[in-house]
Amino acid sequence: MRLTFLLTLLTLGLVAHAADKPLNLTPGAAIRVNSIGFLPTSTKQATALATAKTFRVLRIDSTGEQEVFSATASAPLQTATTDTRETLRTLDFSAVTEPGRYLIEVPDLGRSAPFTIGNDLWNVPFTTVTRAMYLWRCGTEVTGTHNGVTYHQHACHLADGWLDHVGGGHTRRASTGGWHDAGDYNKYVVNAGVTVGLMLKALEHFPNRISALNLGIPESANTTPDLLDEIRWELEWLFTMQLEDGRVYHKLSSPDFRFWGPAANDKDPRYLAPWGTNATAHFTAMMAAAARHFRAHDAAFADRCLKAAELSWACLLKHPQQIDPDQSAFQTGGYGAPDHSARLWAAAELWETTGDAAVLREFEIRASKVAFSENGPGWGDVNDLGLATYLRSGHTTKESDPRNPALVRRLTDDLIAHADRAVTTAASNSHSRPLGVERQDWSWGCNGNVAGQTLQLHLADRLHPDPRYRETALLALGHLFGRNYHGRSYVTGLGANPPQHPHDRRGEPAWPGYLVGGAWPDGRSWVDELGSYERNEIAINWNAALIYALAAFVEPAAK
Ligand code: 9MR
Ligand code: 9MR
Ligand code: ZN
Predict the structure, then answer these.
(1) What sequence ranges are listed for the domain Cellulase Ig-like (predicted)?
(2) Same domain, yes or no: 138 and 84
(3) Does the annotation mark 503 as catalytic?
(4) What is the number of other CB atoms lying within 10 angstroms of the CB of residue 324?
């Protein structure tokens, strides 16, 4: 009796105490800021816990610290239960424009991570994230140094791959090269699609910013843009995945995810998986687009790409119904998806490269049934890549345009609606995350979506220029580099307190320049743990999205 009474009192006390407290029982970081920083003229904001009433901005230089700005925080704002479930305030310091190194201080809450104001602050992130693709190369020795640490891998997977599961008996087909997919070392054609697609789009949309950059890869001395050379490493592998009649093998993989350790120690046999129409369509799209990009640098290689694309396109026409590979011999990544969007993208790129009217018709029939995606391009939905190519086609002049004008109008309106929604979503989200809080926005790999969604913003900016589109694309980067619940950079080796334990078979210290998948099912759920492959893995498709997002803000190298 007495014990029950005591327990009741205790419980009541706890309840009363809890009611006084803010909603979040385990608050995230106190002050959250884009830890790379800000362009001098852009809007500058950070996010802080509700107890922040005022704040100061301090400039840090060799002479010490100096207050350059102080202000009151915004009114408190409650974030959604599907987001981070907190009450937060916004700190606006857009008035600070002088290039330099800064931090924010809030009475009682402490200090933010340091950040930079400057014009070329996105260059190092861009080169690091792009060089990370080189560090993913399979079948060759790779090495690189970042922040004084040297990373090294011996040539791996030189026996790729066995034909047992594709009717070849226990014999091999030479299929070395390409990039490892992720924290696992397998190679999947479907995921190569959106990866190569976004990297080529970076060159297409921002050629003057990135073409002349030295990425420090083995091919840097030649005259081809380094990013194209990096893509070529993957294309050379992809050629080996194509059969003589244009069909394309779905993947090259070990039977399961068992192996852990350096890639060169992985002696598990790796097998080709049967062909499928989705892989074939992705292959066609990549090769057709690559043919255009390589034309000016290596005509023979461009011809090879185009021939391969046309062969696989013919194969797709011969197989109008989707054919999925039998993957029963594998427990690794399935990358199964409807092939509609990959066929659409393939048609767009092949038409853009050849001008073939029949291919344009095929594209327009497919495009009439789709809209821009909710989450930006992804491995299972590459419509945005195809629509982007179509809407910015080089085949149109003032006098003649072979495209269906009603379709062009509808798709343009749809794109603008999507971009405008990203703008308003960012404006109403406490961390200025454009992916928003209502839609399917905290999911496996959502950090890649945040980066990839900027494609719609930059495309919209080209068709209907509006400074808010580039501003919102910057906000996406700001979220990934620290203005988030954790107050941490989600990219290894870059920004404040970056991931140390990514799900990466190469181990630690964490290899630099990789975007981790991110929080889900809500904005608080990310963990920096090796075992958390659903939240803390790295993957080529997410890195490619970040390469695209960063390319937009690279300061071109002086000629
Ligand atoms: O390590 C694997 C990772 O690369 C994949 O993305 C992930 C999802 O397919 O699977 C991981 O492997 C896990 C497996 O699926 C279940 N057992 C634990 C494995 C991680 O060690
Ligand atoms: O990125 C993929 C994600 O969309 C899926 O939900 C998830 C489970 O199927 O698989 C992810 O892709 C993984 C792939 O299957 C194997 N390599 C690592 C990829 C990233 O985790
Ligand atoms: Zn390898």
Answers:
(1) 28-110
(2) no
(3) yes
(4) 17
CATH number for the domain spanning 99: value is: 2.60.40.10
Surrounding ion ligand 3 within 5 Å at CB are: 138, 156-157, 263
* Same domain, residue pair 147 and 112: no
Q: Is the pLDDT of residue 10 over 90?
A: no
Among 100, 117, 134, the domain-final residue is 117
Q: What is the pLDDT of residue 437?
A: 52
Range of 75's domain?
37-117
pLDDT of residue 440: 54
Q: Is 388 in the same domain as 466? A: yes
Q: Is 444 in the pocket of ligand 1 (CB under 6 A)?
A: no
- DSSP character at residue 525: -
Task: Examine the domain organization and report whether 380 and 421 are in the same domain.
Answer: yes
Tell which one of 184, 256, 444 to mutate to probe ligand 2, the residue whose CB is within 8 A of the most ligand atoms: 444
Spatial contact of 341 and 382, defined as CB atoms under 8 Å apart? yes
On whether the CB atoms of residues 306 and 350 are closer than 8 A, the answer is: no
**Average pLDDT estimate for 445-457:** 98
In the chain, pLDDT over 70 holds for what percent of residues? 94
177 plus 234 within the same structural domain: yes
Neighbours of 157 (CB within 10 A): 25
Q: Which ligand is nearest to the Cα of residue 175, counting in written order?
A: 3
Instruction: Yes or no: say if 538 and 490 are a contact pair by the CB < 8 Å rule.
Output: no
Indicate if 55 and 168 belong to the same structural domain: no
Q: Is the CB of 537 under 6 A from ligand 1?
A: yes
Q: How many domains does the chain have?
A: 2
Cα–Cα nearest to 474, from 119, 43, 88? 43
Whether ligand 1 lies within 6 angstroms of the CB of 181 is answered as no
Query: Is the same domain home to 458 and 521?
Result: yes
Write the pLDDT tens digit of every residue in 260-312: 999 999 999 999 999 999 999 999 999 999 999 999 999 999 999 999 999 99
